Amino acid sequence: MTQTSVQTTHFVPADLPTSIRHFIGGKFVDSVGGETFDVLDPVSNQTYATAAAGQQTDIDLAVAAAKDAFDNGPWPRMLPRARARVLHRIADAVEAQDARLAELETFDTGLPITQALGQAQRASENFRFFADLIVAQADDTYKVPGRQINYVNRKPVGVAGLITPWNTPFMLESWKLAPALASGCTVVLKPAEFTPLSASLWAEIFRTAGVPDGVFNLVNGIGEEAGDALVKHPDVPLISFTGETTTGQTIYRNCAANLKGMSMELGGKSPAVVFADADLDAAIDSTLFGVFSLNGERCTASSRILVERSIYDDFCTRYAARAQSIVVGDPHDPKTEVGALVHPEHYAKVMGYVEIGKSEGRLLAGGGRPEGLSEGNYVSPTVFADVAPTARIFQEEIFGPVVTITPFETDAEALALANGVKYGLAAYIWTTDLTRAHNFAQSVDAGMVWLNSHNVRDLRTPFGGVKASGLGHEGGYRSIDFYTDSQAVHITLAPVHTPRFGGK
Ligand code: NAD
Description:
Elements: E1 5-6, E2 19-20, E3 22-24, E4 27-29, E5 36-40, E6 47-52, H1 56-72, H2 80-96, H3 98-109, H4 113-136, E7 141-144, E8 148-156, E9 159-163, H5 169-183, E10 186-190, H6 201-209, E11 216-218, H7 223-232, E12 238-242, H8 245-256, E13 261-265, E14 271-274, H9 280-292, E15 304-308, H10 309-325, E16 328-329, H11 344-360, E17 362-365, E18 382-385, H12 392-395, E19 402-408, H13 411-419, E20 423-424, E21 426-430, H14 434-443, E22 448-451, E23 466-467, E24 470-471, H15 477-483, E25 484-492
Parallel strand pairs: 1-16, 2-6, 9-10, 9-12, 10-11, 12-13, 14-15, 14-21, 15-19, 18-19, 21-22
Antiparallel strand pairs: 3-4, 5-6, 7-8, 8-25, 13-24, 17-18, 20-23
Helix pairs in contact: 1-7, 2-4, 2-6, 3-4, 4-5
The structure holds nicotinamide-adenine-dinucleotide.
Nicotinamide-adenine-dinucleotide binds next to helix 7 and helix 8.
């Protein structure tokens, strides 16, 4: 099977840093003990920079700076409008340098440049959204006629620990930074070790926008070192984590000792269910984009396609032909649709699943490295048909450009297949039957459902998964709820009936 590909030029952005440092208390610093780790680019798999590897001492310093800024600084005490102005300036700055951001993100992650640009713009939009939200925010009051008025006094929780993954790193960091800062928290961000490049840009963006020193702190490092120290730190009352389910389980256990607030956005294996009455052209476009965009390194990827038997053969033939025409190659080339996977370790994992799939399904497209791309972490968009629900490639998150197709006969069978995995992040339903669409949507185990669409987000709606895909929902006011405490204040308006203990 010949894949369409574009050759790599190994484009290197101008002024690429060769060392990536922490940002603590308003200053770029190395690790106290001088520890570093190597950072590779996914096209050459060569080390292009060393990054400071944070240890317990570095996390202690970052948390101390964030705690001081929270306890004594202006940020938590500012009027919402004043904080919103700063957040809008951040959004403006991200927008103004979206091309540079995309270039660096593409270099570090292997994401296609056009998609990295879209992610940079989304990062800006996240700040704008939460800036508007805090200005419009109202809190509840409750009247007990003649007796009480009670109101909610919303307060930022304190130092928020933010731990993020390597897929779309800058955008996913914005998804946590924007609501945490909007709420008045101060933060310590621990970005993913595969992709630390773009996170360091936040420091300058925030400083220029007027975020006081100590409000934003960044500690790079390995999950089991810097991440673990942040999770266990007693002065960090809440952790927002996005990453793998198994890592989430470890963090959950480690948060228990200090009873921390937690938000967990975890893995997925989301179904796209295509009924025979669907608009087939649109369903094919959408399910291709749903799993092959962002290199398939996407938590909400529609990585299991379930297709009604009467259209199954037609769907498979058309889907496979399109998958073979997807342009794979140089992430910096605007023609590229699938770039290079983030890291050789992840590439090996995805290729391992491609080999497993060859004995679990019928290979229709891809199945290995595209011709003409002998270096870099390239995988041809890979399609397996006739995949049984017991197959590992049906059950396990691959997080790469690999999709399974499985036929079904009835609505009940489609639902059982859709729900027959441990995950429950997203589901995509393709049908023109309104009743079926709503009944299916309400029965499927998924935190988010799209009818006749791929993942198009309305930032006000809840974001998150059920089962092994997560704990709690962020998105809109729910994010503000997570980063704030809702204190109930009770005001007495009349004499209170009080039993007179000891009064005879
Ligand atoms: P990962 O779990 O390996 O790492 C995520 C982050 O956790 C990294 O910063 C890492 O350093 C840190 N970490 C690792 N071990 C830690 C520990 N013991 N204590 C504290 N921190 C630790 O995930 P990844 O491979 O970077 O990202 C891919 C995963 O993320 C996929 O499973 C994907 O589905 C998931 N994801 C989910 C969503 C969502 O919203 N549900 C979004 C994007 C990605």
